[in-house]
């Protein structure tokens, strides 16, 4: 396929100039200028057809999700999105598919104020790799290792819906609740406005929830060398999720379902009001679900103060998709 034409036609779209982007698409490399007071933060994620998404997923949803899950990693560091590169492998030169993908990628780039600055285009089984770059004020990145004993544990948005959607996938006759869950899976709403400003002023540690709350909060605990208690009855669940799965299954999925892309963060108790005000201003749901304890690597899940039994294995790639 004519690689150069594809790049020109679909990936060299018009974007707002940014002071930090000296050179974008068109040369051998892109060039970024890092202001003296900032640090460059970077991460890459690959989505492979048949493993991370269904090969027949809509190209609009795919472009949105591929970029959103990467921006989500920047947000979890307290970084502001700046730029990204896209390595895309395409089975064929499918005009309608590429047009839809490109338009959605452009819209999503604008939504998250992030510019496409380069990439690679090859032929083969469909796969999309996006590397993001963000800026954080020097030494202000929110690390997984920053939690302190007695900090509160918080969650943005709701949990478990994306995992439930996997069970209703590909049925044609989805009811209103099921389609709203399906939307959460294919177009996860990441807490962009909430995390973009002020996040590092109150968050002591953070992670974006891609593998389920239990697994991802455990990463914070491992790296902070601490423990936590989580109250299962406090977990924020979608009404649609409870409707479709029932409260018990909903709680299990909220703990162990993947693909939610909400933030789990810790913060000192003194910030409770500040966090609620900031959440109100940015139209974000936040929920305090527990607290950090001194017991190393111990994650206790409690229901009415008793131990809660967890019966789902954590999300694992290669197991849950066809
Ligand atoms: P090279 O052979 O030097 O790697 P390429 O032909 O792969 O050059 O790419 C030419 C230019 O187009 C480079 O600036 C590259 O970053 C950019 N580019 C290639 N593919 C993509 C893509 N899918 N999205 C955005 N930019 C791309
Ligand atoms: Mg190349």
State the CATH architecture of the largest domain: Alpha-Beta Complex
Structural class: alpha+beta
Q: Average pLDDT across residues?
A: 93
Low-confidence stretches: 314-322
Question: CATH first level of the largest domain: which class?
Answer: Alpha Beta
Number of domains: 2
Please, could you describe this protein's structure?
The chain has helices at residues 3-11, 59-76, 95-111, 161-168, 176-186, 192-196, 199-202, 213-224, 239-245, 247-256, 272-281, and strands at residues 21-23, 31-32, 38-48, 80-90, 115-123, 127-137, 152-156, 203-208, 227-231, 263-267, 286-293, 299-303, 306-307. The strands form three sheets. A seven-stranded mixed β-sheet has the order 8-10-7-11-9-12-13. Strands 3-6-4-5 form a four-stranded mixed β-sheet. A two-stranded antiparallel ribbon has the order 1-2. A hairpin with a 2-residue loop joins strand 12 and strand 13. Helix 2 (59-76) runs parallel beside helix 3 (95-111). The chain has two domains: 3-137, PurM-like, N-terminal domain (60s Ribosomal Protein L30, Chain: A, 2-Layer Sandwich), CATH 3.30.1330.10; 144-306, PurM-like C-terminal domain (Phosphoribosyl-aminoimidazole Synthetase, Chain A, domain 2, Alpha-Beta Complex), CATH 3.90.650. It is globular, with a radius of gyration of 20 Å. 34% of the residues lie in helices and 26% in strands. The two termini are 29 Å apart. The protein contains eleven helices and 13 strands. With 322 residues, it is of the alpha+beta class. Adenosine-5'-diphosphate (ADP) is lined by residues 7, 11, 25-28, 86, 88, 116, 118-121.
């Amino acid at each position: 396929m004519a690689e150069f034409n594809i790049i020109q036609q679909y990936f060299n779209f018009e974007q707002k100039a940014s002071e930090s982007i000296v050179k974008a698409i068109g040369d051998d490399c892109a060039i970024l200028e890092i202001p003296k007071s900032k640090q460059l933060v970077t991460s890459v994620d690959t989505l492979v057809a048949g493993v991370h998404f269904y090969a027949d997923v809509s190209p609009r949803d795919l472009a949105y999700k591929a970029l959103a899950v990467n921006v989500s990693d920047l947000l979890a560091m307290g970084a502001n999105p700046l730029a990204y590169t896209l390595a895309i492998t395409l089975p064929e030169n499918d005009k309608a598919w590429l047009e839809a993908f490109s338009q959605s990628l452009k819209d999503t780039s604008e939504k998250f104020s992030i510019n496409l600055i380069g990439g690679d285009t090859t032929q083969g089984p469909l796969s999309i790799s996006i590397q993001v770059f963000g800026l954080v004020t020097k030494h202000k990145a929110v690390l997984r290792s920053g939690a302190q004993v007695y900090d509160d544990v918080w969650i943005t948005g709701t949990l478990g819906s994306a995992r439930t959607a996997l069970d209703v996938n590909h049925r044609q006759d989805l009811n209103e609740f099921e389609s709203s869950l399906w939307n959460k899976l294919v177009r996860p709403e990441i807490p962009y406005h909430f995390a973009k400003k002020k996040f590092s002023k109150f968050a002591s540690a953070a992670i974006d929830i891609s593998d389920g709350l239990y697994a991802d909060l455990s990463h914070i605990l491992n790296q902070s060398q601490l423990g936590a208690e989580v109250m299962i009855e406090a977990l924020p669940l979608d009404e649609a999720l409870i409707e479709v799965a029932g409260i018990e299954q909903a709680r299990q999925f909220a703990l162990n379902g993947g693909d939610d892309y909400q933030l789990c963060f810790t913060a000192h108790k003194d910030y409770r009001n500040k966090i609620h005000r900031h959440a109100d201003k940015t139209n974000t749901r936040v929920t305090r679900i527990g607290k950090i304890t001194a017991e190393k690597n111990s994650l206790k899940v409690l229901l009415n103060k008793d131990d809660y039994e967890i019966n789902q294995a954590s999300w694992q790639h290669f197991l849950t998709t066809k």
